[in-house]
């Protein structure tokens, strides 16, 4: 009887999700694969021409796609490093015995609650007004100017804002990880005379590996897929200097009206993200230490 | 146990009921539409500024004729994508707007041929949207752009050619006033202004085609060479337009911080929201001594040919009513604030910018909008990134021309 009931609950909660997931993810994904073999401008009444793998071949010679691939990788590497470093630092800070740790925890998490689009528009103002003002007041106008209109700096601006958004969220995961570390191990190391730095490297970090696995996975995949902040902060500009993968695909499909080619890009994009994140999870999982 | 079962049952049933209710609701609607014998039409269009007024007009139309008209909303930014999505999912509107021939070509299979309709005879000469021999769109109204200037600060004679334009910019620069301002959005940054070297050619549209075919390049065309000099002068003497939004551009102008902005008569709406105590006017952009405003049609009404006959007829009736009835005319001129492109409308009182455009149109002192025959999406996709590069990097006039040619060829 009990078992049967469990099954009911299972079905109740799983089936609706499965239906939604199938209709909005699986089916469109399969249709997308189908479209990637066609040359089509996305207008239903216009002809679809079967071109086989031509779209994928064409990708190899698409300079703008390669450029955006490179930018995406650069963006991802930079933001994964900064988000995790800052997130971990935040977590250590708010779990230490400082006053107002709880308030700090809330404040640091807050940016994650703001939608990416709004965040981008807000930071546009910050870069335009605050940064230029800071530059004028301090005289450091080599560092403080509107980053978003400089092709070299706009990407860093994007990393900066994305870090600001994500670090608090990653902090929460690290906090959970830190709290899972048994106190007796720490205490034992203190008695053995380990310095705080040694404790961090030899004990805390290895025991944090499961949290690291999750955090890296989350930051990697969301940095790769970023679109909202990208759109509202820079719109891919200036001069395509911040046109990341997702935006490049959108522009190809809706901007240039190359539906098939855009879908092909999306498929390649999916494979790359899947390959990288799976590899990362595989590697970091192996380094996790059993207690 | 029974209690639990009830909850489970209720939880499962609730969404089911909802789904059923939704389905039956849908059925009711379509049946209701058929029974009343009055056809319902839907309108989807890209000009956000007139959505409220259009809805009001639709309501009056319903009152007069009993035909229900639904105006669908959009934010305007990605109108064409939204239209495409609606058409693809077979929820296309009966009437939609098209900006230009390039859009019309892409949607050719959805566009109804208006040539035989009576009301198209009122369209001002050369202002109809045509696809080959067919008339496929009724213009919203004519629009014109040029340099909107502050009459207290600028004397038209001082910006009549390249030399005077540059020395005026330099003078303003020394005084700490922004002499001339573009804005960061695609059309306000490069779309409209890049129109000039094309449209002062003898055959502007033909020249665009020659550019597309690679038969001519910007680098070897004198109009473009001077255009490049203009752009360099603007870049050197004014703050970068890359951090200037449309609102800010117009606001700064109204506040007297900017002497001239490159805008169209459509800006008078937003301009009137600011308080300013000087007179304004619109001047031609003086490329190669050009003394004519760029006037064209920004938007056209088109009918969805994939709808059934009844709905197409109803859509035709609506456009006919709008182009010939008094109420329709009142809305076009007074409520939408358009400069009419129909010869049977009396323009009445206009704001100074629209008046300038109408005067130019009536006297024939206009140059066309070459940007309406540019390759599809070239302005946001190719020219804007190029212009952003130009304004953020060191670029000479020669490099500007090379970059322009490259951007143009990249769009092919």
Feature tags:
heterodimer, A: about 290 residues, mainly alpha, MetI-like fold, globular, B: about 400 residues, alpha/beta, D-Maltodextrin-Binding Protein, domain 2
Short description:
Chain B: This is ABC transporter substrate-binding protein. The complex is a heterodimer of chains A (291) and B (412). Chain A has 291 residues and is mainly α.
Notes on the protein architecture:
The complex is a heterodimer of chains A (291) and B (412). Chain A is 74% helix and 1% strand. Chain A has one domain: Orthogonal Bundle (MetI-like fold). With 291 residues, chain A is mostly helical. The mean pLDDT of chain A is 88. Chain A has twelve helices and two strands. With 412 residues, chain B is an alpha/beta fold. Helix content of chain B is 48%, strand content 14%. Chain B has 16 helices and twelve strands. Chain B has a six-stranded mixed sheet. In chain B, strands 6, 7, 8, 9, 10 and 12 form a six-stranded mixed sheet that branches. In chain B, strand 4 and strand 5 form a beta hairpin. In chain B, helix 12 packs across helix 13 and helix 15 packs antiparallel against helix 16. The longest helix of chain B is centred in the first third of the chain and has 34 residues. At the A-B interface, helix 1 and helix 11 of A face helix 1, helix 3 and helix 15 of B.
Largest sheet of chain B: 6 strands, mixed
Which chains share the greatest interface? Answer: A-B, 27 and 31 residues
* Secondary structure tally, helices of chain A: 12
Q: Can you write the helix and strand succession of chain B as a string?
A: HEHEHEHEEEHEHHHHHEHEEEHHHEHH
- As residue ranges, the low-confidence spans of chain A are none
Q: What's the N-to-C terminus distance of chain A?
A: 37 Å
Give the N-to-C terminal Cα separation of chain B. 70 Å
Task: List how many beta strands of chain A DSSP finds.
Answer: 2
SSE ordering of chain A: HEEHHHHHHHHHHH
Biggest sheet strand order of chain A reads: 1-2
Helix content of chain A: over 70%
How many individual domains of chain A? Answer: 1
Strand content of chain B: 5-15%
The CATH homology group name of the largest domain in chain B: Periplasmic binding protein-like II
Task: Please tell me the total number of domains of chain B.
Answer: 2
């Amino acid at each position: 009887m009990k078992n049967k009931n469990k099954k009911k609950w299972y079905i109740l909660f799983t089936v609706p999700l499965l239906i939604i997931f199938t209709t909005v993810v699986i089916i469109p994904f399969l249709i997308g694969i189908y479209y990637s073999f066609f040359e089509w401008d996305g207008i239903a009444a216009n002809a679809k021409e079967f071109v086989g793998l031509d779209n994928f071949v064409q990708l190899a010679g698409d300079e703008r796609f390669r450029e955006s691939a490179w930018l995406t990788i650069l963006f991802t590497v930079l933001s994964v490093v900064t988000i995790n470093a800052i997130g971990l630092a935040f977590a250590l800070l708010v779990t230490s015995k400082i006053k107002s740790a709880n308030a700090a925890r809330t404040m640091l998490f807050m940016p994650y609650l703001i939608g990416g689009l709004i965040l981008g528009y807000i930071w546009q103002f910050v870069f335009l007004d605050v940064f230029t003002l800071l530059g004028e007041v301090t005289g450091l106008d080599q560092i403080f100017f509107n980053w978003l209109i400089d092709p070299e700096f706009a990407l860093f601006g994007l990393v900066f804002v994305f870090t600001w958004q994500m670090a608090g969220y990653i902090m929460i995961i690290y906090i959970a990880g830190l709290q899972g570390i048994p106190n007796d191990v720490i205490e034992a190391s203190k008695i053995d005379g380990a310095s705080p730095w040694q404790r961090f490297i030899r004990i805390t970090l290895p025991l944090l590996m499961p949290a690291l696995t999750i955090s890296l996975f989350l930051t990697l995949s969301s940095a790769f897929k970023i679109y909202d902040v990208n759109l509202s902060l820079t719109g891919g500009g200036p001069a395509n200097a911040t046109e990341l993968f997702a935006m490049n695909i959108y522009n190809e499909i809706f901007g240039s009206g190359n539906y098939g080619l855009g879908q092909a890009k999306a498929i390649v994009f999916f494979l790359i993200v899947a390959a990288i994140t799976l590899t990362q999870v595989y590697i970091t999982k192996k380094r996790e230490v059993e207690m | 146990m029974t209690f639990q079962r009830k909850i489970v049952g209720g939880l499962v049933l609730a969404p089911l009921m909802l789904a059923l209710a939704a389905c039956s609701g849908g059925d009711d609607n379509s049946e209701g539409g058929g029974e009343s014998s009055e056809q319902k039409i839907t309108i989807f269009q890209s000009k956000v500024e007139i959505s409220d007024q259009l809805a009001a007009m639709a309501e009056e139309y319903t009152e007069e004729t009993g035909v229900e008209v639904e105006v669908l909303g959009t934010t305007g930014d990605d109108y064409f994508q939204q239209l495409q999505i609606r058409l693809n999912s077979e929820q296309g509107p009966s009437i939609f707007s098209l900006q230009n021939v390039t859009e019309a070509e892409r949607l050719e299979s959805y566009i109804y041929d208006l040539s035989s309709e009576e009301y198209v005879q009122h369209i001002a000469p050369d202002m109809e949207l045509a696809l080959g021999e067919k008339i496929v769109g009724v213009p919203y109204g004519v629009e014109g752009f040029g340099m909107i200037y502050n009459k207290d600060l600028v004397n038209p004679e001082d910006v009549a050619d390249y030399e005077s334009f540059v020395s005026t910019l330099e003078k303003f620069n020394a005084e700490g006033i922004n002499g001339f301002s573009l804005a960061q959005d695609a059309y306000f940054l490069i779309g409209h202004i890049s129109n000039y070297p094309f449209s002062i050619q003898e055959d502007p549209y033909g020249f665009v085609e020659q550019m597309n075919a690679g038969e001519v390049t910007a680098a070897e065309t004198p109009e473009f060479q001077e255009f490049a000099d203009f752009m360099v002068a603007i870049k050197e003497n004014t703050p970068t337009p890359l951090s200037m939004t449309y609102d800010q551009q117009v606001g700064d102008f109204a506040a007297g911080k900017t002497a001239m902005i490159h805008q169209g008569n459509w800006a008078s709406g937003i301009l009137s929201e600011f308080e300013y105590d000087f007179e304004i006017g619109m001047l031609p952009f003086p490329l190669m001594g050009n003394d004519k405003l760029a006037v064209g049609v920004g938007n056209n009404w088109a009918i969805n040919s994939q709808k059934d006959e009844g709905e197409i007829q109803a859509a035709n009736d609506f456009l006919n009513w709008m182009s010939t009835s008094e109420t329709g005319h009142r809305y076009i001129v007074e409520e939408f604030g358009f400069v009419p492109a129909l010869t049977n409308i009396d323009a009445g009182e206009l704001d100074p910018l629209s008046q300038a455009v109408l005067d130019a149109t009536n006297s024939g002192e206009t140059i066309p909008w070459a940007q309406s025959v540019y390759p599809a999406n070239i302005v946001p996709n190719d020219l804007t990134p190029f212009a952003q590069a130009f304004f953020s990097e060191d670029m000479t006039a020669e490099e500007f021309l090379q970059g322009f040619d490259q951007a143009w060829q990249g769009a092919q």
